[in-house]
Design goal:
The complex is a heterodimer.
Chain A (H helix, E strand, L loop, with lengths): L18 H17 L4 H7 L7 H7 L16 H14 L1 H21 L2 H13 L4 E4 L15 E5 L2 E12 L6 E8 L5 E8 L5 E5 L11 E12 L10 H36 L12 H29 L5 H25 L11 H13 L4 H13 L5
Parallel strand pairs in A: 1-4, 2-4
Antiparallel strand pairs in A: 2-3, 3-7, 4-5, 6-7
Helix pairs in contact in A: 1-4, 4-5, 4-7, 5-6, 5-7, 7-8, 7-9, 7-10, 8-9, 9-10, 9-11
Chain B lengths: L12 E6 L2 E3 L20 E3 L1 H17 L1 E9 L4 H10 L3 E6 L8 H11 L7 E5 L10 H9 L3 E11 L2 E7 L5 E6 L3 E5 L11 H7 L4 E4 L1 H5 L28 H14 L5
Parallel strand pairs in B: 1-4, 1-6, 4-5, 5-11, 6-10, 7-10
Antiparallel strand pairs in B: 2-3, 7-8, 8-9
Helix pairs in contact in B: 2-5, 3-4
Classes of the chains: A alpha/beta, B alpha/beta.
The structure holds flavin-adenine dinucleotide.
The site of flavin-adenine dinucleotide has 21 residues of chain A, from strand 1, strand 3, helix 10 and helix 11.
Chain lengths: ~400, ~270
């Protein structure tokens, strides 16, 4: 088996892409095929994040690709999306790492940070020399981040942070954490703070026993009276809205990423179905029920691609709304998960073995469905946008 | 581009890399109506040895300074190989753009290239060892002849010397040959000579602003003549294999087998 992946393009999607967009995708695909695919199953077994890929990814320009200046590649949003798609065709864990680094750490520093903060962090983060994490979720505060308990109080020239963050991607490998906390000085409003992870009182512990995103680091962060200089406040962050703006960046990339995972599953199932023979020495692809599954997949992947392209172009024109991004995150992760399940089914027993990528994608996508706003929370965001009624 | 006059600081290597767009390696091929070549509706990619030639040129430039120029002859679609080369770090590109370039034999492609670059002054011209489609391995060699330059083929290594270059050629059966030669020269590069780089995202952005010179059919048609070589017929190999069962007792089967091996297959 294993015919080289050629992309999934049923409706001449590629004709809507520019030469540069196709080249960006090709570079990412090549990088992933040469460097991640040969090691990913072992990483997944070992629960190991392939950190050795971070520097080369930085050299290629994969971090903060849409930002202007600071050594960033100045990509448009479709190019950014295609990068995410190809990373996640490899593995959702590596894509998650890149989403956090770019959308949840570099972006808030870029959008809400002071010039000093940008100069200090962005060039190193673009190169992959410095890593970041994003601390919003807490043990008792998930879908409703407004209920967070982490606090920041002002003492002289410092802020003192206390609280627990949970399910934090890259928590224990980060040099800096973007921590969202209620600030006493600002009337209890949520603000973003840059916390260097080597500050006394800051402890990151990895969460073990995950069945999903095993090739990505997920940690809990504990902060007991962590003192940071007052200049570490992200000056232009104001309220939860700022945190949600970051999530919008990352969710947009996730919506593309999910298509990459779906393509990997579809490609594998299609090849398998054409080669595996059952009954009268015929390939299983000759059975109507198998074809129906493959058709469902190509149909959903194709729809997802065109929605993404439109959202990406809107984003480039600054016309995208949060509910647009919710629509594609919700739809695409759902359809990717369904594709993974159908592909698993088509592979029969082989579908559960890690010789094939499908089960890993399926397990990964369960996290992707939950993080960055669960599927149902995105339903409520779209629902609120069309009815004008909040139903959270 | 005109050759600079006067005391311009001359960089060591000014390298031209000839690159070809060929059908993707594992693309399903369909024959054209005349059965003389394949249909246009396949996926294309850069000819593999040419990618190594480009990589080697970029490495030489990084070591010694200079300029890397890429050239191709082919229809509009062939521009993609030049864009990729620019994204990887080539400085400028020359595109001989016309559908008619597809049907040229190696001699005429070499003649078209020679005509297109007559105002440039290169120290080195690299081609891939051969193209993955026609597989002639002639374009570089013929181009050297037309330029009146020395050439060396199947190059595995290039080293700068005071007098020119020292190159390592791959021979048969694991043998290598080292050759010293003066410049300018033409080298045909073997796949695997180096490790290919990826186009970086910043490189892809910058490529857009790099010069791409278009050369039309009319610009070079005076230099091009009748094809000396032409594909008469292209066909999928016909299956001639047939299986025959020998029956009888082991002794009889052995006897029949020996007879066949001796008289039909003639291997005994
Ligand atoms: C691998 C992984 C990595 C993560 N990385 C990060 C990270 O880097 N940074 C970070 O801050 N967080 C991270 N998260 C956390 C993630 O964002 C949260 O898990 C997510 O927001 C959901 O929160 P919860 O798990 O507390 O679920 P809950 O909020 O408890 O939700 C549980 C269920 O209840 C439903 N529900 C909740 N409220 C409503 C409602 N009003 N109406 C209907 N249904 C509702 C949800 O849809 C869901 O089905 C990560 C999570 C995972 C699994």
């Amino acid at each position: 088996m294993a015919i080289k992946f050629k992309g999934v393009d049923f409706l001449e999607f590629d004709t809507l892409l520019s030469d540069e967009e196709r080249m960006v995708r090709a570079t990412t695909r090549e990088f992933i095929e040469d460097n991640l695919l040969p090691i990913i199953e072992q990483c997944n077994r070992d629960g190991r994040f392939p950190r050795e890929l971070v520097k080369p990814m930085g050299e290629l320009g994969f971090f903060g690709p849409t930002l202007r200046g600071y050594g960033c590649a100045e990509m448009n949003n479709v190019e950014y999306g295609l990068i995410m798609q190809e990373l996640e065709r490899g593995d959702s864990g590596l894509r998650s790492f890149a989403s956090v680094q770019s959308g949840l750490v570099m972006y808030p520093i870029y959008a809400f940070g002071s010039d000093e903060q940008k100069d200090r962090w962005l060039p190193g983060m673009a190169k992959g020399d410095k890593l970041g994490c994003f601390g919003l979720t807490e043990p008792d505060s998930g879908s409703n981040p407004g209920s967070m308990r982490t606090r920041a109080r002002r003492e002289g020239t410092e802020y003192v942070l206390s609280g627990e963050k949970m399910w934090i991607t890259s928590g224990s490998i980060a040099d800096v954490a973007v921590i969202w906390a209620k600030s006493d000085e600002h009337g209890g409003k949520v603000r973003g703070f840059l916390v260097e992870t080597d500050r006394p009182g800051f402890v990151a512990k990895d969460i073990h026993g995950k069945w999903s995103l095993r090739a990505s680091v997920t940690s809990s962060l504990s902060m007991q009276d962590v003192r940071i200089p007052a200049e570490n406040l992200l000056p232009k962050s104001s309220g939860l809205k700022s945190a949600l703006m970051c999530l919008n960046q990352a969710r947009y990339g996730i919506a593309w990423g999910a298509v990459g995972a779906a393509m990997a599953c579809y490609d594998c199932a299609l090849q398998y179905a054409q080669f595996r023979k059952q009954f009268r020495d015929q390939p299983i692809a000759s059975h109507q029920l198998v074809q129906q599954k493959l058709v469902w997949m190509i149909n959903e992947i194709t729809k997802a691609q065109f929605m993404l392209l439109q959202v990406g172009r809107l984003k480039d024109q600054d016309k995208v709304r949060p509910e647009h991004i919710s629509l594609v995150k919700r739809n695409n992760v759902w359809m990717a998960l369904e594709c993974a399940r159908m592909a698993r089914d088509i592979l029969g027993a082989n579908g559960i073995a890690d010789e094939y990528p499908i089960f890993r994608h399926m397990a990964n996508l369960e996290s992707v469905k939950t993080y960055e706003g669960t599927h149902d929370i995105h339903t409520l965001i779209v629902g609120s946008a069309i009815t004008g009624i909040d139903a959270f | 581009m005109l050759r600079p006059n006067g005391p311009v600081a001359r960089c060591w290597v000014k390298i031209l890399v000839c690159m070809k767009q060929v059908p993707q390696k594992d693309a399903p091929l369909k024959l054209n109506e005349g059965g003389t070549w394949i249909r246009e509706d396949v996926s294309y990619e850069v000819n593999e040895p040419d990618a190594y030639a480009l990589e080697e040129a970029l490495r030489q430039k990084e070591k010694h300074g200079g300029e890397v120029v890429v050239i191709t002859a082919g229809p509009a679609r062939a521009q993609q190989v030049l864009r990729e080369a620019l994204a990887k770090g080539a400085d400028r590109a020359i595109h001989l753009e016309d559908d008619r370039f597809v049907g040229l034999d190696a001699f005429n492609v070499a003649r078209a290239f020679a005509a297109a670059i007559k105002e440039d002054a290169f120290d080195l011209i690299f081609t891939g060892l051969q193209s993955d489609d026609y597989g002639y391995a002639q374009t570089g060699v013929l181009l050297a002849e037309l330029m009146g330059w020395p050439h060396a083929t199947i190059i595995m290594q290039i080293e700068k010397k005071d007098s020119g270059i020292r190159v390592k050629r791959e021979l048969e059966a694991g043998f290598f040959q080292f050759v010293e030669m003066p410049l300018p020269a033409v080298l045909t590069i073997q796949s695997g000579i180096n490790k290919l780089r990826y186009a970086t995202l910043i490189g892809i952005k910058q490529a857009k602003n790099k010069p791409m010179r278009k050369v039309s059919w009319d610009d070079v048609s005076g230099a091009v003549g009748e094809n000396l070589q032409k594909v008469e017929k292209l066909y999928v190999p016909q299956k001639t294999k047939k299986t025959e069962y020998l029956e009888g007792s082991p002794a009889e089967v052995a006897k029949k087998l020996v007879d066949k091996l001796r008289n039909e297959v003639r291997v005994l």
